Amino acid sequence: MPHLKGKTALVTGSTSGIGLAIAIGLAKQGANIMANGFGEIDAAIAAIKACGVEVEYHGADMSKPAEIQDLIEQTEKRFGTLDILVNNAGIQYTANVEDFPADKWESIIAINLSSAFYTSHHALPGMKKRNWGRIINIASVHGLVGSTQKSAYVAAKHGIVGLTKVTALENAKTGVTCNAICPGWVLTPLVQKQVDARAEREGISNEAAKNALVSEKQPSGEFVAPEQLAALAVFLCGPDASEVRGVAWNMDGGWTAQ
Ligand code: NAD
Prior knowledge:
With 258 residues, this protein is an alpha/beta fold.
């Protein structure tokens, strides 16, 4: 029996990579899905629909608070409930602090961090009223450890881990839990861009750049699969995870154990 039948999940940035895998994972457990994000929208909707659930799409830009509020309101209006919120939308930019463009700083903080505040802010009243909710914030190993050239990303991901703990504590006596997932390298379009940049910079093949990237940081030498992260998200929404609260859960091939 799929354990999320009748629930509604909003997954931000679910047109690609980790977000799409999580939307599919939750849909396989019976949850109806509000999808969001840019790019390959039709393909993503079709892949989620193939799981036999209801799917709606809202193109809210996660850097815009008014659009985020509308996304939450439209989700509750369409499905009558919003039970699972996965804050996954994220972008990346690399430069040293002194070279980091201010507009990139602002947009990374807005999309990777502030959006999770605004979605939670608008979704929590309904979840608390129903005394059931799951908020999963997709952070990163960079929410736990630093890295050069990623100031905005590292700051945003540390911030979202902090927001996770506060949200979990404020709701600890309710049926609403909040946890973060901290992936290491996952070969999604976001990381593919970094692979391509490295291949060009170092004059090496794409395959060599991919292997160099993953083996430098992850003791396993393997990328984490989006489906493995989806399985963790499904677990965090399940009955056995009701006492998992305020956790930042790594899935990183051993990266942060070093
Ligand atoms: P991706 O580029 O494949 O997907 C990002 C998604 O976010 C897409 O659906 C995109 O359309 C959406 N998005 C981007 N800007 C948006 C905006 N302004 N409004 C709405 N949607 C927007 O990336 P991914 O690798 O799947 O990353 C997903 C999340 O996982 C991000 O938060 C990222 O920081 C995190 N993460 C990724 C890795 C990795 O190795 N890929 C590691 C750790 C954490």
